[in-house]
Amino acid sequence: MTYLVIGAGPAGLAAIRSLKDAGLPVEAAERNADVGGQWLYGAQSSAVYASTHLISSKATTAFADFPMPEEWPAYPGRVQIEEYFKNFAKRFDLYPLLRFNDGVAKLTRQGSGWRAAFDKGETRGYEGVVIANGHLSDPLMPEASGNFSGTLMHAKEYKSPEIFEGKRVLIAGMGNTGCDIVVDAIHRAKNVLWSVRGGNHFVPKFVAGRPADERNHKTKLVLPKWLRSRLHEPAARLLAGPPERFGLPKPTHRLYDRTPIVNSLVLLHLGQGDVSLRKPIKAFDGNAVIFEDGKRDEIDIVIFATGYKITFPFLGDLSPLNWQPQFGAPRLYMNVFPPEDNGLFVAGLLEGAGVGWPGRALQTDLIAAYLKARKGKLIAAQEFRREIERYCAAPANEDRGEHGIFVDFLQYKRDLKKAIERLR
Ligand SMILES: Cc1cc2nc3c(=O)[nH]c(=O)nc-3n(C[C@H](O)[C@H](O)[C@H](O)COP(=O)(O)OP(=O)(O)OC[C@H]3O[C@@H](n4cnc5c(N)ncnc54)[C@H](O)[C@@H]3O)c2cc1C
Ligand SMILES: NC(=O)c1ccc[n+]([C@@H]2O[C@H](COP(=O)([O-])OP(=O)(O)OC[C@H]3O[C@@H](n4cnc5c(N)ncnc54)[C@H](OP(=O)(O)O)[C@@H]3O)[C@@H](O)[C@H]2O)c1
Questions:
Q1: If you take atom 27 of ligand 1, which residue's CA is the nearest one?
Q2: Which one has a higher pLDDT value, 186 or 215?
Q3: How does strand 281-285 pair with strand 288-291?
Q4: Which protein residue has the closest C-alpha to ligand 1 atom 48?
Q5: Atom of ligand 2 nearest to the CA of 200
Q6: CATH of domain 3-138+308-423
Q7: Is 10 in the pocket of ligand 1 (CB under 6 A)?
Q8: Domain 142-304 part of CATH 3.50.50.60
């Protein structure tokens, strides 16, 4: 029987290719009209806005055997990335395996496999399913009391900066999205306020004219994450500037414990006074916003750049994915394998600057290697299954971010490669 891949973003495309290359029968469903996932600008699942550029350089982000063109800049924009994925799907002949404009509405168990019900009404049985539905599509909206009479939206809806023309704008959230939107707003808005909660490290895009992340990937020796943080944090603080000197909260975590902010412009604008900081939002009152320290400002547009929820709407019961309510996420071995041997695999569910699309491809190569080993290398497959069960039974005591899905890219890619070798 065939395997189903849900989604044709970077992780879904990697999954189709890995299974196809391993000689496993595979087909895929994509609710959008084309491939690219987040990078298909304007699609219902996409949170990408017109000004988006990669925050990881093209050399570290592109699939290992499908580099981005030499003449493209170090951090290509979303138009180029959209083209990149269409070219990737053409180059590896993935289009014939995909159905578009038809998503998976429901997955139900069928024997040892799964039955998928599609949006357009068809149902089909599969031996297993690789879920690559993305985790930046379902907006997380913070709670605030009262009603706001201006325009209020999540960053997912934000596309381009004309909406800011002449307006009093408030952006909430200091992830990479919030930082990009603050920069977008500055040249159009009457004034820009920025509501910030926790602190984060800032990393410049370029050091001495070279992409700042390139050297990280060339290292042969993987130093422990805490030691790398200790070594690189002073450099980041020197090159970008300590965030607290710009009035931002001092980060309480180490550099390599979270995705940093990769934005060379937003601190400049803070320093120039083009944007003013505010505490988290407490309440709305007509066209006014009241902040936690009691400050009150009249605002025309509020944008919540406050992140996303991890959701699997096609699974009525999330226990097959080992769902952890305290994290709002599943607990999966290597972010991929649930403890139950149930034919479900997850691809692309991770946070971690530096993993790039090669990291997603390693995840899906591992899924394919495991599926093949179950038929040809039984002892290795059984040992791998025991590893999955041992990991998932152990308490989740390591700090892996809010959702428990953060990975240290150097160690993670190395672990994936080793696991693939053991199964092949
Ligand atoms: C603004 C922005 C900038 C980013 N910049 C970077 C960067 O510089 N570097 C980096 O590495 N990452 C970056 N990311 C992260 C980005 O999410 C990843 O690059 C990548 O797109 C994740 O791939 P994915 O395939 O896991 O998910 P997605 O790209 O989200 O793709 C998921 C796909 O699944 C489809 N789908 C969902 N549910 C169903 C269903 N039920 N049936 C059928 N199809 C379904 C969706 O339509 C979508 O096409 C950025 C994200 C954003 C929002
Ligand atoms: N240019 C690019 O390539 C680019 C652009 C955008 C996004 N991305 C990537 O896409 C992913 C999602 O990024 P994201 O920025 O959308 O989400 P995110 O990384 O989850 O950041 C959300 C931010 O919102 C803050 N927040 C949450 N609730 C808040 C509240 N009530 N008031 C004030 N702040 C609040 C969080 O602060 P706390 O720290 O206090 O929780 C955090 O700073 C990340 O992996 C990111 O790196 C890349």
A1: 134
A2: 186
A3: antiparallel
A4: 37
A5: 39
A6: 3.50.50.60
A7: yes
A8: yes
